[in-house]
Amino acid sequence: MRRRLARPFGKSISSSRLISSLMALAVLWALYGRFKDPTTWAWMTHESLESVASGAEPSTSANKSQVAESKPETIIPGPNEEDGDALLKLRKSLSVVEDKTPLQPHEMLAYWQMLAWSRTRPLADFEKTAQRDVPFAQLWAEPDLFRGHAIRLRMHVRRILKFTVEENPLGLKEVYELWGWTEDSRSYPFVVVLPELPAGLKVGTDVSGEVVFVGYFLKWMSYQTFDTKKVNYSPLLVGRCRTVAAAGPRSAATGWEAAFLLIAAGIGVLGFTIWYFLNSSKRGRMTLPPSATLPESLPESFFKHAVQSRNESESFSDSEPRPAWLPVESAPVVVGSKE
User: Residue 240 in contact with residue 117, Cβ under 8 Å?
Assistant: First the structure.
């Protein structure tokens, strides 16, 4: 009997294993390139990505405490929703407001009255009285429930427009219109109107900023997109806002999320590769039966069956075909140990 060699991994490496090895090397190389980038670890030192990429010195606590000088708040004494007569006057003005239409002249009385109310107290005090986390879907379904009420929004601003206004009760020459979305509204923008623009924001059609807005809900205003000419609707609010200095922490969180996802992907690919190699080696390895020991004596049925098979084999002539189930003649088998 010819001797066979057990080769656990076969005669050669299969193409699938070679591809898996190359993929693992590619992932390791990508991880190495990512980890050697200093911006990957900026979140650990609380540095901004811009300062790390430019090689600037880390900012000190004194530098972090320095913020841009904010504009002084303009506070105009006057009645607001806490005054009963002013509240009745506003409700009368809001009775003619129509949703899902452009801003109309007969709605400007409530518009200017609520804008004046937003300037009668400091923004911090105004923010305490406003409703928070108003669901966007509920604002759409029940606008009358929130019309004329103060609402607080945390907005991601993407467009800021400046408009010159005609003669008005507040004596304003211009107002600012901010377009942005919240974590709840996502792709559906809010439109908010401010009497003055806070520090840190600039007029433009492609801006990026985050503000906390506090103001009064007026209506769902319709507008037409300039490209598709499609009519959309956005909630219109008037009030005031302040900027949120969250650029540093957001950049750090973004870097941490990217590093975590990259590490998780690398671990997943390496784990799959190791699992594939282990299972492939088990499938390719020859399974050898354990060594068996011969019994001291064979049962009588064994000899009876052997004699019967031999007799049947001799009953056939040489010209007749030999059945496949008959055993081939061989030398007698001697059972027992050698003396």
Answer: no
Secondary structure letter of residue 169 according to DSSP = T
φ, ψ of residue 90 in degrees (nearest 5): -65, -40
Q: Looking at domain 75-245, does it have CATH number 3.40.50.2000?
A: no
286/229: higher pLDDT: 229
Domain residue extents for the chain: 15-54+250-283, 75-245
Which pTM does this prediction carry?
Answer: 0.56
Segment holding 258, helix H or strand E: helix 247-284
On the question of pLDDT at 150 being above 70, the answer is yes
Question: Phi first, then psi: what are they for 109, rounded to 5°?
Answer: -65, -45
- DSSP character for 40? G
CB 154, CB 234: distance < 8 Å:
no
Question: Phi/psi at 125 (nearest 5 deg)?
Answer: -70, -35
pLDDT band at 50 (very low <50, low <70, confident <90, very high): very low
